[in-house]
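Give me the fold.
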Amino acid sequence: MYKGIFILVILSTILSGTSCQKQSKTIEPILDQAESILELNPDSALLLLHEITNVKRLKKEVYYQYYLLGLQAKYKSFKDITSDTLIFTIRDYYQNTNNPEKIALATFYCGRVYQEQKNYEEALQQYLETEQYLKNSTNFNLKGLCRSAIGNIYYRQLLKDKAISHFVAARDYFSQIEDYKNQVISSKLLGNCFLVLGKTDSAFLHYNNGLYLADKYNIKTEQIGIRMGLGVAYRELEDWKQSNYYFKEAMEFCTDSLNNAKLLTNIARVYELEGENDSAIVHLERALRHLPHEQNNSLVASIYDTWSGIEENKGNYKNALDKYKLFNKHLAEILAENRNKAVLDIEAKYNFQVIENKNRQLLIERQRFTLFALGVVFIFLLVILWFLKRVANREKELREAEQKIAQMKEMVRTFNEKEDTFRNVLIRHFDILKKAALLEKYLKRDERKKSERLLLKFNEVVYGQKNIDWNLLFEALNTASNGFFEKLRSRFTQLDKSEFRICCLAYADFNNTEIALILNYRVSSIEVKKSAIRKKMGIKTRGNLRDFLIQEVK
């Protein structure tokens, strides 16, 4: 019965605990699919991840995998990740596991979050730690991304030589896995570095290498980006023809209005520098037409700034002033945007903190509810165990009562009315015959089916009498034994009342079970008390107590 209850409890616990595991198993194929399309289609990977519901109920390991994939997809889709600070907890979680790849990936995206927050020192520290985790790794993609990220920070800090070494290493890693898109990006970044250093030959070498790969593998975003870079480079070298050539060629690959507006603005600046002011104004007007609904104040301000300078060169001061006013207007909007962005960033961080606090509160409440539920279950189990123990004790008492009734019947069977032995005297004195008859009658009434009533009746019949006079019984036994029991009591004064009574019953040839029945002890208790009696009387261990008493009579 106990086993059945425990099995039920264990099964219920397992069933309740496997619901999250089942959900996690159904989610894992979706995560694998999202990971497989992450590099080429991060937007699709993000949409796939957003279809997953109740992510908080996932196992911690699966939830962290889901979050890390989502963060990668967001970054690769050019979405804001500055508030994704759970990545720091995920990094700490993986650092307690034996999985260097996961540790490196989580640490790398900690650097990405720091970099987006413009905390470049912390970002650099995370990237350098990532490199340590990747020392023995063959994950060339992550190695290349890490080197490229470090190079970008050095480039921002004007450490161009250090940036170049990291961009070269990144390009080599990407080359080993034939990641052409990142090879092109590395070549473009190398071109930028050499251009800033004034090493135009090296700059054009890397630009052209990147352009070759971009065209060969039809990497559209980089086909535009490198051509735009080449156009700017030639413009700085005052090679207007080549500059315009690459800007116009970039427009052939351009499909979005923003890039078209940027390219038209760059072409206008080339015409301005060439002194072709009318052509410059035409291209600036076209650039504005590409941005009728775009809120890109930086680009619009740049357009009006260039236009104002052109009108001033032409001597059209009124038009120059009008364009300059528009330039100032958009410049003010840029400043307002920056202020608003700062406010929004603070608000976003505050809102994120509020959400985190709410989530923590929900987690605490859920834990409280879980603890309460576990407490209720624990109390319920204790009640069940108490009930089972009570039933088991009743069954045990019933078996003992039945054994005692059988023993009384056996005592009655061996009783001889004509004999005047100590045993018969005691049987008559304890009224064993009457008690056995009464209990036999109750047994015949099939009271066994009602164990409670049988036990009550047994205790009432056998032990309910208050008129047993041990002093009177002692006098009768002492007279019948010619004063033996008086001598025994005088000699062994160390025996207490119960021990002395056991001696009397043992001398009268009652066995342990019968003595236990008469004195209302357990048989085991009689055995313990007899051991104590032997010790007090100096009888050897396991020595026969009755033989010793008979020897004392002699």
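The domain at 469-554 is CATH 1.10.10 (Arc Repressor Mutant, subunit A).
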